[in-house]
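RECORD TYPE: protein structure
NAME: Branched-chain amino acid transport
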Amino acid sequence: MIGYETYDAWWWPYLFIAVAGWLATDIWRWLGVLVGNRLKQDSAALTWVRAVATALLAAVIAKLILYPTGELRNVPVALRLTAAGIGFGAFLLAGKRIWVGIATALALLIGGQFLLA
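PREDICTED:
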């Protein structure tokens, strides 16, 4: 049987992860497109899906800010919270342009790190 450890090439784990990740998620995306086309924009089901998606995204962002991993762990919590808050404010002021909020928050994080170093 062919398994994860079958091949010894350096690229095999990356290919395995890419294919397995694609297979695991792509079918749900296609099913979502097929089912989503039949739903009305203001239906209860679609409202629930949007609420769950928004809650999951908020949880991921909160986890990244409050319990980061990697290099972000070295950034003070106050700087992370300030950058997120000001980035959100910039997002709203710029007419809900996502790239403005992200760029603002990143600039504050990077600038804050240079000031603290």
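COMMENT: Residues 70-117 form one domain.
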